[in-house]
Structure prediction request, 391 residues.
Amino acid sequence: MLTVTIDSMGIGLILPVLPDLILEIEGGTLAAAALWGGVLSTSFAVMQFLCGPLLGALSDRYGRRPVLLVSVGVMAVDYLVMAVAGTIWLLLAARIVGGITAATQATANAFLADISAPHEKAARFGLVGASFGLGFVLGPLFGGLLGEMGTRAPFYAAAALSALNLSLGLAVLPETVTEATRRPFRLAAANPLGAVRRIGRLAGARTLLTVFFLYQLAFYVYPATWAYFTQARFGWDPGLIGISLGVFGVSMAAVQGGLIRLIQPRLGERRMVAAGLTLSICAFTTLAFLTSGALVMALIPIAALGAIAPPALQSIMSQAAGADEQGTLQGVLTSVNAVAVILAPLLMTSTFAAFTHPAAPVTFPGAAFLLAALLVGVALGVFARRVPAVA
Prediction:
């Protein structure tokens, strides 16, 4: 659980200080830094997409313990490299390695499957999701606070956490793969595109998967551009950026972990999707044009209400899929989300840069959020037109 939490923290930890770190290394304008930020984020996501299945397959052959511990150890060294990086290329190399070592969630899930009875697995897989969410809240929060001590401080702190986690794992983490359950490594089992090729075989799911993808692509405007947008529009420092991201993470957890249970019996899945998409359109559009930082901070919990849409979409698709297709469906959803994670940073940071660089014909820092609203609007149109009202 600590490994998954620290992996997630690694994603969010650098968000508040990344603009200042890139400017410190490269110089130039904030718009140029945003472009480099998109490259760094996309390279991280690509390596997660490629290496998640690979690490899972390796853990089937060599065991969960060595894969997890080696990943944590490499992660500690990687954070140290980022802390001392003096060139953008070294920072990029470190992000690539970080994406590989952060792709340990598949191994963590496999470990929990090994030690759990069938009736315990759903709850324990939920703990992995909770750990990921906790890390995404803590990462930006501590990153922003530590950023007040310098742009390198969050990376030294992350390295120390990883080293402590490695020591704990060496002391207490058992091996759960036995000779009876060990299987040979096959490259086909480590292919991340296998799930994507199965999309066409899920009858009736293409429309819902399209809606899911468009929503996820729009949603990632937050981690991709939030630090740049709030600095350009409101002049926020890393500490305030980190606090705002922490508030958003807590709000998301409250919505998806508690509020959905109250809403679902009253609205049903289809109305939840429509409501979530509509709320997201309103939130993105409002964020694009607001000029008061205080109002934006107050809007964050309301913006998080749009997060009721993805779980409702997943519920509809799960009910449409057969009992023997549930695993395939979850694999496809994971792959679709990974593609959104890869594309969103480049798309959103490019949009931000196009409307904030010195020669831009119109200065509009909120352009990426307006693009996100447009994407969700398309998703809502597709959903309303093609998904029956009885769904």
Notes: The chain is about 75% helix and 0% strand. The CA atoms of residues 226 and 241 lie 8 Å apart. The chain has two domains: 1-192, 196-391. Residues 196-391 form a domain with the Growth Hormone; Chain: A; fold (CATH 1.20.1250.20).
